[in-house]
Structure formats: structure tokens, C-alpha cells
Design a protein that fits this description.
- By secondary structure, the chain is an alpha/beta fold.
- It folds into 3 domains: 135 residues, no CATH class; 137 residues, Rossmann fold (3-Layer(aba) Sandwich), CATH 3.40.50; 191 residues, no CATH class.
- It has 19 helices and 12 strands.
- The strands form 4 sheets. It has a 5-stranded parallel beta sheet with strand order 6-2-1-7-8. A 3-stranded antiparallel beta sheet has the order 4-3-5, with no helix packed on it. The chain has a two-stranded antiparallel ribbon with strand order 9-10.
- α16 links the parallel β11 and β12.
- α2 crosses α4, α5 packs antiparallel against α6 and α7 packs parallel to α10.
- The protein starts with a helix and ends in a 5-residue tail after the last helix.
Length: 495
């Protein structure tokens, strides 16, 4: 539950959820008024109307979720947004029509239904344009400052790029200050080592409100030294302080931090903030003690044991229900290109145990004549049908058998090939921790990150996997399953 609150119920998402509930509820009430002339007060007090509205709200919100209308970023055109909303309303209306046929007690009436279907697209599009306008005015962002060492601060700045829930007001540095050379014609600003400072260098700090001071190499304003934290935080109306320092003893302005915390300012360490903000556990420079004493990692063994039976039952039901569609896909694979329909490949499972994974074949039979290699963008080895199967993740469905026999789970880190694991464990710290849980058909890294082929991409996918392992729970598995269904519908992430 903490995960849901901290990650999904941010101020931005909460505002959008409230807007949707209000628009869908009052839009339905408006449809009642236009059709029957009943006032909203009368409508909301009518017996059974609350249940009917709840169904309307739920179905429409689920449809909007799968149309990515809760993942609005940057500037969106009114026309494209309206078209997406209209498509979502059309699909959800069709689902409601079927639901009303099956359960007529919850129906809102044919005339009201049709009017509501016409009203909702412009209303929902308008509410989202208001939401985007508020976001562009930074009204929904948490204003944060980062204090600490230049290298650590730079890492926080890099990781927060693209995170729309936060507005990075600036940084306060310890150690080597931001300096400007005494030459009045030199406007460059840089972080320098104290030993390399020129004796005549002039120390100054970049004030974002001062147009005479250009941006520094951190990419964000340097507000001043750490000993002015209280004053600068109040001046810039800061909501949160991120402490980015490896060695904090005797260097932190503890009294200022305590004062701000008692005023309601959120004070967090770098690792904890980045984990919450990005859904990853950063591994660069992470000491083992931080993992040993961190909260989380407590339910792994018990939860893995509890998942075995439900996974096996769900896999058996899946194979039974999908038997005919799977057989049809197998025939299509055989028809599309010469070779077997199924492809079996050795992967590394829990505790480093090797097993053979089952997939529909999506590449030519001679795809790895020169040895094991990662798939590339527009990989020529992929067949015509295979490209669709990989994009839609249908090629992974035969792994239901691996789940049935206990080699895999529905949700977990994706299993890698032994040839790659041996190399990645030498180059990426903590990579071996991926194997403390059973691998999954889908996982947190799969729904949050594109296909990984480079060393940097594998490092970032590991950070997502560690986040899952640390916070593993039934709620998180459910969220990943919902996200996976959306990824399959929009065919993204695979190659």
C-alpha cells in the first residue's frame, strides 16, 4: 500500500483522478437533466443512482488508463487529445452496453446513456487541458532543492530529468564552491577542486533570480552554500530537501534540516528519494550496507512460496483457455517461415539454476550462427510475423508451461541467457541479486523500461528489478499485470 500511495497517488495523479470522478459523475447527472429534467440534487439522491454512477466512472477510468490518458506528458495537442479521449469513451461505452445487457439493474437508461456518450468526450478533453495548463504553470509540482557534494548533486539532477512531478528549484553545495574567475569578461561557471582554485578566484553563487549570473555546469541554479539552507528554502517556498552526500558527519546543517522538517518540509536522503521518484534502486556507488539495513527485502522468501500454487493454477487455466489460439499461432509461425513453431532456449532461473524457456519462434533458424547476441532495433533476423508477436508479447505465452512446472512466475525479473549473465555480473554491481526470486513472464523492468541491449540499459533494468525485489507484494504484482496488459495493447518495449 505504501508503494501505491508514494508512487501513483502523487499530487498530479490525485488531481487528475478527482477531476475525472467529478466530470464523469456530473456529466452523467447532466445527461439525466437533459433527458428527464431532474436536477442534480434529485438525481444524486435517487435510489440506485450511486451504484450506476460508480459503474460508469469505473469503466470509463479503466478505459482511459489503457488509452494512456493518465500518462500525459509535456504539450499535447487538443485534436490528438480529443481523438484519444473519444476513442476511449467509445470503447468504454461499448463495454457498458454489454454490461447493461448482462446486468440490467445497473443500467442508466438508453437515452441518458446516449447523451452521456456525446457529452463525455468534450468534458474529459476540457478537464485534461485544464490539468495540462496547471502542470505547465508548475502548480502541481513539488518544489525541491538538493544539498550536498557536486558529484552526488549532479547524479540527482540527471536522474530527475524528465520527472514532471518535481520542480528542481536549485542546489546548495558543500565542499568546493561554484567559482567564477576574477576575469570580468569570463562568464563561465564551473565546479572546481579546492586545491586547483586560483588564489585570486572570486567565490560566488548563482541566484536564479539574478539575470547577470548565467547557468552553471550542473544545469540547475546554485542557490548558495549549505549554511544558508533555512533562509533560501523559505525564500524559494521549498516543499522538499534532498540530501546528496556520502560523508555527512559534521557537515550537514542539522538544525536547519530539523527546523524545516518541523515546518512540514520533506527531508530525504538521496537514495530514498530517487527510489521513490523513479521506481528504481540506483546501484552506482551503492554500499552493500545500504541494502543490508534498508527497509524492504523482508517478504521475499515467504511471498515466493505463497505464489507457487496461485501461479500454477493460473498457468493451467491459461493453457486450457488459450489452447486453440496458441495452436493457431503455432500454425501461423510454421506458415510464415521454415522451422519449428516453438523455440527453446537456456536461461538462468532462481538461485542461478539453468532451465529451458519456451517461446514462439520469432527469428530465422540461422539467427545465431555467429553466436549469442541481443536483438537490435529493426533486427533483420526477425520474421514478418515475429515482429508482431514480439511487439504484442504473444511470443511469451508458451512460458505458461514454465510457470506451471515452477521454473518461472507470472511476475519477476526476466531471465537472461547464461552467456550474458556471466559477463553482466562482472560489470554491473549486485547483478546476481536478480536470481533471488523466480524469473517472470513480465516484470517491473519490462513495463517501465524499453528493451535493454547495452551495458547502461542493463544496469538501469537491474535498478528496476531491485526495486521490485525490495518492494515485492501482491499489490505490486497486480499493478505490473495491469501495466503489462496496457503494454500488450499498445505493442511497445520489445524488439
Amino acid at each position: 500500500m505504501h508503494y501505491v500511495i508514494s508512487r501513483y497517488l502523487t499530487l498530479r495523479s490525485l488531481v487528475l483522478l478527482v477531476l475525472d470522478v467529478a466530470v464523469l459523475s456530473w456529466g452523467t447527472a447532466l445527461a439525466v437533466y437533459l433527458r428527464l429534467g431532474h436536477t442534480p440534487a434529485y438525481t444524486f439522491s435517487a435510489d440506485g443512482f450511486g451504484y450506476a454512477v460508480a459503474v460508469v466512472v469505473l469503466v470509463h477510468m479503466v478505459a482511459m488508463y489503457y488509452h494512456e490518458l493518465y500518462a500525459l506528458r509535456g504539450s499535447v495537442g487538443v485534436r490528438s487529445l480529443g481523438a484519444n479521449v473519444a476513442q476511449s469513451v467509445a470503447i468504454s461505452s461499448a463495454l457498458l452496453w454489454v454490461l447493461y445487457y448482462m446486468v440490467p439493474e445497473i443500467a442508466i437508461g438508453r437515452g441518458i446513456f446516449l447523451i452521456n456518450m456525446l457529452l463525455l468526450p468534450p468534458l474529459l478533453t476540457g478537464s485534461r487541458m485544464i490539468y495540462l495548463w496547471m502542470g505547465n504553470r508548475q502548480a502541481l509540482q513539488q518544489r525541491v532543492v538538493v544539498i550536498g557534494e557536486p558529484d552526488q548533486v549532479r547524479e540527482v539532477v540527471r536522474r530527475l530529468s524528465g520527472e514532471q512531478a518535481y520542480q528542481l528549484v536549485g542546489v546548495l553545495l558543500s565542499g568546493p564552491p561554484v567559482t567564477r574567475e576574477a576575469d570580468p569578461d569570463d562568464s563561465s561557471w564551473q565546479i572546481q577542486d579546492a586545491e586547483a582554485e586560483n588564489a585570486h578566484a572570486e567565490t560566488d553563487f548563482n541566484d536564479p533570480l539574478d539575470p547577470d549570473h548565467p547557468p552553471n555546469t550542473l544545469g540547475v541554479p546554485v542557490l548558495g552554500p549549505m549554511d544558508s539552507l533555512r533562509e533560501l528554502s523559505e525564500r524559494h517556498r521549498v516543499d522538499g530537501v534532498i540530501v546528496a552526500m556520502r560523508e555527512r558527519r559534521g557537515r550537514l546543517p542539522l538544525e536547519d534540516l530539523l527546523y524545516l522538517k518541523l515546518l512540514g518540509v520533506q527531508v530525504e536522503q538521496q537514495a530514498a528519494f530517487l527510489e521513490r521518484a523513479t521506481g528504481r534502486v540506483p546501484v552506482d556507488g551503492l554500499p552493500p550496507s545500504d541494502l543490508v539495513f534498508a527497509e524492504g527485502f523482508r517478504r521475499i522468501h515467504l511471498y515466493q512460496r505463497l505464489k507457487i500454487a496461485p501461479d500454477a493454477i493460473a498457468a493451467a487455466l491459461g493453457l486450457l483457455v488459450l489452447a486453440i489460439p496458441l495452436a493457431f499461432v503455432a500454425l501461423l509461425v510454421k506458415w510464415d517461415s521454415p522451422g519449428p513453431a516453438l523455440y527453446r532456449q537456456v536461461r538462468v532461473g532462481r538461485a542461478g539454476q539453468a532451465f529451458k524457456i519456451n517461446k514462439f519462434r520469432t527469428m530465422r533458424t540461422d539467427a545465431e550462427q555467429s553466436g549469442a547476441q541481443f536483438a537490435a532495433e529493426e533486427d533483420p533476423r526477425v520474421t514478418r510475423l515475429g515482429r508482431f508477436l514480439r511487439k504484442s508479447r504473444i511470443d511469451e505465452l508458451p512460458q505458461l508451461y514454465n510457470v506451471l512446472v515452477g521454473e518461472m512466475s507470472f511476475v519477476g525479473p526476466r531471465p537472461e541467457r547464461p552467456e550474458f549473465v556471466a559477463d553482466l555480473q562482472q560489470q554491473i554491481p549486485y547483478y546476481y541479486l536478480r536470481t533471488v526470486v523466480r524469473p517472470g513472464i513480465t516484470g517491473w523492468a519490462q513495463v517501465r523500461y524499453p528493451y535493454g541491449a547495452t551495458l547502461r540499459q542493463h544496469r538501469e533494468k537491474l535498478e528496476h528489478d531491485l526495486y521490485y525485489i525490495k518492494n515485492v507484494s501482491f499489490i505490486m504484482d497486480t499493478l505490473i499485470a495491469l501495466e503489462t496488459m496496457r503494454v500488450m495493447l499498445f505493442a511497445r518495449g520489445s524488439r
